[in-house]
Each structure stands twice: as C-alpha cells, then as structure tokens.
Design brief:
The complex is a heterotrimer of chains A (169), B (410) and C (159). Chain A has a single domain (35-158), classed as Rossmann fold, CATH 3.40.50. Chain A is 34% helix and 11% strand. Chain A has helices at 15-32, 45-53, 88-97, 109-113, 143-158, and strands at residues 37-41, 76-80, 103-107, 134-136. In chain A, helix 1 runs antiparallel to helix 5 and helix 2 (45-53) crosses helix 5. Helices cover 48% and strands 11% of the residues of chain B. In chain B, strand 2 (41-47) and strand 3 form a beta hairpin. Chains B and C meet through helix 1, helix 8, strand 6, strand 7 and strand 8 of B and strand 3, strand 4 and helix 3 of C.
Chain lengths: 169, 410, 159
C-alpha cells in the first residue's frame, strides 16, 4: 500500500477566511461605534462619568452616549465605582442578564482592584466575578482617560471575531 | 463558559414579603437603578401606583471606612475622608482636620481659615449643583442638567489648579492646607462666578414657574419640622421645613462669624422647597466667596501653622538639618502624635451636620474614627417622605434627599 | 463657649448628671448601663431634641469592653451632650432610644452589626450596612481587617 495521503477536502483557497475577516471588520466597525453603556454606577467615579457624558468631553462623539438602564438593551457594562460584597450578586446578575456580544469596562481603581479599600467589605476587583475587557485606572480617572479607555475598547472590538451565524462565521 | 453555581444569594432580608392585601404588589427598586444613585434598594408595597409602605436598604457602598482608618496614620487617612461625601470632598477634609486640630489643640492661621472657608463654600456649590442637576435630569429637564454640569466642570478644573485633582482632593492637612493658591486663580474665580450667575439664571427661568415642575415637586415628599428633628435631619432637609438651623450660624467655626450671609428656609418641607433652598444656598455661597476673596487679599500671612507636631518642615530644611529630617521621618512613619482623648466636631456639610468622633490613645494612628454622616440619618426617615405618594414621586423625592453613597454607607 | 449653658443643664439634670465634665466644648456625662434611658428622657425634656449618633468603642482587653457613646444636640441652646456607658463583653446590652427618637432605628442597627451591642426595645436589628450571612462584628478589634466573606464564588484563577 502506498503512503500517499489523500486529502479529504480540496486545498483551501482562503475565500472563506477572506469573507469572514471582511465580515468581522464590518460588524466590528458597526458595533464599536454604537455602544450602549449600562452605567453600573456606585461611587465617586460617578462624578467623572457624568462629566465625561456631558460637555466638553462628550462620549456622544464615540457613539457611546445613550445609556440603557436595562441589561437586556445594553452591551457595555461600565462598572463605575467600588463594588463591595453586598453588591457583587447584583453585579453578577446584571452581567448574566446581558446578551452577547457584551463587554465590561472596569472604570476606576476600585473596580479594577479594590482601590485603596483593602478590607472585609470590598470586592478586590470586578474581574474576580466577571471577565473585564478594559481597565481604566484612576481615582477617579480624568475624563480624558475614560475616553482613552473607550477608544482602546473600540480597537479591541474592531479586531475581535464577531461570529453571527455559526460559531465559525 | 464557567459553570459556577449561579443561584445568587439575596444580600438583604426585607421587612415584609407578603402584601397586606391581595390587591397590592411588592416591588423591588434598585440597587442598580438610574434614579437611586446607584446604591439604595427600596422594597415597596404598591396599591396600583400608590406606595403603601417602603423598606429602605443601604449598605451597597459600605467600604469599611472606619476599619480602614484604624490602620492608617492621622495624615494618611485624609484620602479616605475625602471619599465620604465625594461631591463636596473639601468639606470632609476640613471637618476632619478641624477635629484633629481640636484634639491636638492646634490653631490654624488666619489665611488658612479664610482659604478653607472659601474652598468649603466652593465645594458646597459643586455639591448642590450636582444634586439639582441629577434631580432635574431625572424629571426630564436635560438642558438644565447640561447647563449645571458645564459650570461644575469649570469648578472642577479650577479646583484642580490649586489641589491637583478634580473630584477627590486630599488637600486638607492637619494644621493648614497642602499648598497655597497659584497666580491667576482669583481672576478665574471671578470669571466662573460670573458664568454661574448667567447659567443659574437660565435654569431658574426654565424650571421655577414651569407647570410640570411645580406639579411634580410641590406638595410631594412633605415632612414636618417635628418629624424632621425626631429623625435627626439637618442641613437643607431641615431648613426646607422652615426651621432656620445652620451650624455656620448656630455654632460658628472657621471664618463664618466674620461673614454676612442669610440662611434660606422653605415653607412646607416638600421637594420644591428643597430645590429652592439649595438654589438659594448656592447664591449665598457665592456671596460669601466674594467677601472671602477680599478677606484673603488682605491676609498675607503663612498658610500652615508653625507647629512641629503636625506640620511637615520645608524641604530645604529636611535636606540640610538633622532635626527636620527626623521630624519629617517621624511624621511620615508614625504619624503626628495626637494626645489621648476623644472629640466630636461637626461642620455644616452640604447635606447637614457632618460630625467626626475621634478617639485617640496618644499614638500616631487613631483608635477610632467615626463619621456622623447626614445622608445615613436622612435615609432613616426616608420612608416618611415616600409612603402615601405615587411611585413616580419616589424619583424626585429621593433625588431631593441628596443621598451620597459614600457618606451614607461609609 | 457653652459653659453657662452647661451649668444650667447640669443643675437641671441634678443627680442624673453626677459624673459629668466639659471636654472640647461638649458636656460628657458618664452613666451606668441601666441609667441611660432615664437620663436621655431627662435630656429630651431639657431641650436636647436631636439625637445625633450612637456608636461604640472597643477597648479590647478591659473587663468592661465596650463603651457605648451617644451624642445629642439642642436646637434651642445649640450645644452638644455626650452620654457614655460601659458594658461587658458577655452582656453587651443597653436600652434602645427608639421610643424617644425616630433616628435611633438606623443608628442602632449599624451599631449592632458593627460591634454586637444589643438594644433592648429595638426589634429590628437586621444588618444594614452589612449583608445577610455575614458572621461576626467587623469593627471589633479582634476581627481582622482583611477577612472577607464573599457572597459570590470567584472565577477560576482567584482563590
């Protein structure tokens, strides 16, 4: 018997990959400029969240202006402020109720790592219970930092895979 | 996809879980809700749209402030104190520093006194502005929100020029302040106060005699003076019921005895009165700031008191003299030695009586730091203002209480 | 500043204010745990209409471990009074002021969950700042600061 390997499929031409990449770029472009944040606001970072949503820093320029206070209607969970152990079940419930695709932004030092509240009450970073896509340090972060974070998230979304019909496409 | 057990525990036990009648419904509002400012949960029993009884739950922003303070030096915990009422952080700084100074028997210089008073009033304006802007936005007046937040942003940038930060400053020091005003600060202050008059005039024009605003706020969330005092209300909440109680007039501290200002009071104790009392208090604060600018200009002395127990020595001395080096080292590593004892000092915060109860055992770290937070006490009586009104009235009433999570839950 | 007022208050309270002194502008009255309610009732009749705060101090190692501290304010005389008592660790109980002041409800709940002080007469001592299932009283000196009691299990990679 010969050891010639008979391929099951013909040589791939790359057409599927090309279409899939272009589709991902298109969907990524659409999704990154139409973010609907869910502002899960708890503490002092709320002041900077209000500032970044209004003049002169305006998140509307990035498409992320319209907050949706229902997890069913939003896709970006902005965890703004300290999350403590009492609030953690509520945060997880809201995260689980959001539909795919969804991203999580840890806004501020307390959401990133617990900030300087390292004690019995605080959850030391939101990434202990939900996966976080972008971390914005600062106590509270300047509005420019928040915008930088949103733009980094937009870069991430643009270069992500966006399967819409099947797991591969 | 991780398969953790996702039956999430309920962190609270409501006071009631069965409605008093079959026609009633129990509804949970919050804690992640746009109008509850992030951290309050209200379990309400409703008859249609009317609220029969409520159970208010706070604690969703409890960050262990008191426990945290017990392991930091008297200076190092100033950033924690800032984050109590984060809308007017400088008032918290100065109230805490005043309490420690009382315990150490340190008297601040006149220049520090005037500058602290000026910045406290400036912070009070920012706080009232945030409260009114958020309250109006929740009612639907988005334009007024944008006007007020523009001024608030100028105020933040302006305070950042002197303290270095926009929202939480850590600017107060025991014995004075961190640094003095930069050049050109007062001119910018006059420009901002001019813009304030303009923008707040526009908000008055949009909202004061607006039929919808009056219908939603007049006679809603009423509390009587007797109830208010029984529930420990102070600040604009108590003044809106008609009682002219203000710690700046009753027990003057800082430079308030030298200033000429009025204490605005309301008539009925409803939401409209609270809105108007806060607007008038902002005007009085601007009037006080204008007087303080003149008082500051006339007072050119040192900013920090020359007391080695609490004030850091100048850097040139630290690098050239051994005594200053050791002094600096001791102040940083051990903290200022505060004599054993206890003290309760209360300032008029933006929400009411902000009191600090400090217990010292003579060390450089406190034995206990307790905050008497006005928002926490106000939440204790919130059910009096919510029961009997419509569900939609809960939003403006709650907004007018100005519950700040950092202060309420500490 | 309030010295003549304090003299009048002391003379009005009579025997109830035996152990009292003025410290940093506040009249401090020490009392036995059972004498708190009569003293506060007398204070309220004397014009101290606002109950500001109740908290406790944990003197770990002493026999009377907890020192419960109340603050009151008179809106007419504009002065403050502090009432202090000491309770033992085995029986940390004092009377509740709920019958006199409405603000006692929340403040006693907080003092109970943080220190374990029981207030006789206040039936609603549910946790307020802490959550259901939290074991212990965190502000006691023998509770470690970093000892967390999470409600939600952490993701993989975090212990």
């Amino acid at each position: 018997m010969s050891d010639k390997v008979i391929p099951i499929r013909p040589e791939p031409t790359g057409a599927f990959e090309y279409i899939s990449t272009k589709k991902d770029e298109l969907i990524g472009w659409a999704r990154k400029f139409s973010l609907f944040p869910y502002p899960f606001v708890t503490a002092c970072c709320a002041m900077e969240f209000m500032a970044v949503s209004s003049t002169p820093y305006d998140t509307d320029r990035f498409g992320a202006a319209l907050p949706r206070f229902s997890p069913r209607q939003s896709d970006l969970l902005m965890v703004v402020g300290t999350i403590n152990h009492k609030q953690a079940p509520i945060l997880l419930k809201v995260y689980e109720q959001m539909c795919e695709p969804k991203w999580v932004m840890a806004f501020g030092a307390c959401a990133t790592s617990g900030g300087f509240y390292q004690n019995y009450a605080t959850l030391l970073g939101v990434d202990r219970i939900v996966p976080v896509d972008v971390y914005i340090p600062g106590c509270p972060p300047r509005p420019e930092m928040v915008i930088d974070g949103i733009m980094k998230l937009q870069d991430k979304i643009a270069h992500e895979r966006h399967p819409i019909l099947t797991q591969r496409f | 996809m991780d398969m953790r057990d996702l039956r999430l525990p309920n962190p609270i036990k409501p006071a009631f879980d069965k409605p008093t009648s079959d026609e009633h419904v129990i509804v949970n509002i919050g804690p992640s809700h746009p109008a509850t400012h992030g951290t309050i949960q209200i379990v309400a029993e409703l008859d249609g749209e009317k609220i029969i009884r409520t159970d208010v739950h706070c604690g969703y922003l409890h960050r262990g402030f008191e426990k945290e303070c017990e392991s930091h030096t008297w200076h190092n915990l100033i950033p924690y104190v800032d984050r109590l009422n984060y809308c007017s952080a400088l008032i918290n700084d100065f109230a805490y520093c005043a309490a420690v100074e009382e315990l150490m028997d340190v008297e601040i210089t006149p220049r520090a006194k005037y500058l602290r008073t000026l910045l406290a009033e400036y912070s009070r304006i920012a706080d009232h502005m945030t409260c009114i802007a958020a309250g109006l936005m929740e009612l639907g007046a988005m334009t007024a929100f944008l006007y007020l937040v523009s001024i608030r942003d100028w105020i933040y940038e302006h305070i950042a020029q002197v303290t270095g930060a926009r929202v939480t400053y850590s600017y107060g020091r025991i014995g004075g302040l961190a640094r003095d005003l930069p050049d050109g600060w007062i001119e910018r202050l006059h420009w901002i106060l001019g813009q304030y008059d303009d923008f707040v005039g526009r908000v008055h024009g949009l909202v004061d005699r607006n039929r919808i605003f009056i219908d939603r706020m007049r006679d809603v969330g009423v509390i009587s003076t007797a109830d208010a005092i029984s529930y420990g209300y102070t600040g604009p909440m108590l003044r809106s019921t008609g009682a002219p109680r203000d710690l700046r007039k009753d027990t003057p501290y800082l430079a308030y005895s030298e200033l000429d200002f009025e204490v605005p009071v309301g008539i009925k104790g409803d939401n409209y009165d609270r809105y108007f009392v806060r607007m008038r208090e902002m005007d009085e604060s601007v009037h006080m700031i204008r007087q303080l600018v003149d008082l500051l200009a006339a007072c050119k002395g040192p900013l920090n008191v020359d007391d080695r127990r609490c004030t850091f020595p100048e850097k040139e001395h630290v690098y050239s003299e051994i005594e200053s080096l050791i002094n600096h080292f001791k102040l940083v590593m051990d903290g200022p030695r505060v004599p054993a004892g206890e003290v309760y000092v209360a300032h008029e915060g933006a929400n009411g009586e902000l009191g600090f109860y400090l217990v010292s055992t003579g060390e450089g770290t406190p034995y206990k730091v307790h905050v008497r937070a006005p928002s926490f006490v106000h939440m204790g009586g919130a059910h009096k203002m919510l029961n009997g009104y419509q569900l939609a009235d809960l939003i403006p009433t709650f907004g007018s209480i100005n519950m700040i999570g950092g202060e309420c839950d500490r | 500043m309030g010295a003549p007022v304090f003299d009048r208050v002391k003379s009005d309270l009579g025997a109830l204010a035996e152990d009292s002194a003025v410290s940093h502008g506040v009249l401090v009255i020490g009392v036995a745990p059972d004498g708190v309610l009569p003293l506060v009732r007398a204070l309220k009749n004397r014009g101290f209409d606002m109950f500001l705060d109740v908290t406790a101090v944990d003197w770990l190692g002493q026999a009377a471990r907890f020192e419960v501290v109340w603050h009151f304010y008179s809106t007419t005389d504009k002065v403050r009074v502090r009432v202090k008592t000491r309770v033992r660790e085995e029986q940390p109980e004092v009377d509740s002021l709920l019958s006199l002041y409405g603000s006692a409800a929340f403040m006693e709940r907080e003092c109970h969950e943080m220190y374990g002080i029981r207030f006789r007469g206040n039936d609603d001592l549910r946790p307020l700042l802490l959550y259901e299932g939290f074991v212990g009283h965190p502000l006691r000196k023998d509770y470690a600061k970093e000892q967390e009691q999470p409600l939600v299990p952490y993701r993989e990679g975090f212990q």
